[in-house]
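EI: anyone free to look at a 192-residue chain?
SC: sure, send it
EI:
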Amino acid sequence: MIDYKHNENLEPKKGDLLISEPFLPDPNFERTVIIICQHSEEGSFGFVLNKPSVMKFDEVMEDIVDFRETLYVGGPVQQDTLHFIHRAGDLIEGGVEISKNLYWGGNFETLKILIENKQINPNDFKFFLGYSGWGSGQLLDEIKTDSWIISPRATHEKIFDYKPEKLWRDILKEMGGRFRMFSNYPDDPRLN
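SC: here you go
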């Protein structure tokens, strides 16, 4: 059995999920699940998978019409930038493989053409405003201080098909043991 808990030898890697501890005090990451897109000595970054914004894709991209896909708040960094992950394979060139058949980014002009021509399945994409980033060693320090749980089981279903409002709880329940217990903690610790 995998020990998901905070282990000094356990480092996140591309494709892992970071699950915030139940009472993480940072409102940017309260009960969030983040897909790690890059982790190195220089730093780490990823996208929050379960914070939908009120904005739709065609509201921020004026030259795109009738593409009402939800934009997610990818994190607190550069929220004026648009990013995407997808499971559309080589349909969009230039994407960086995060894990098997899961890609970050790619040629944005190609994406726009495919959207305009209705040649993509919106269920294969997730769009983000901003991202989550950590400087050199910062994420590892946060893991060691019990801010994050690492789950190496980032499946396409979890990323694209789970309901965002249930993602945090559902993943913890699936992890079992003490994590199942975490999933039942109330939002306000005073109610526990």
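EI: The mean pLDDT is 89.
SC: 👍
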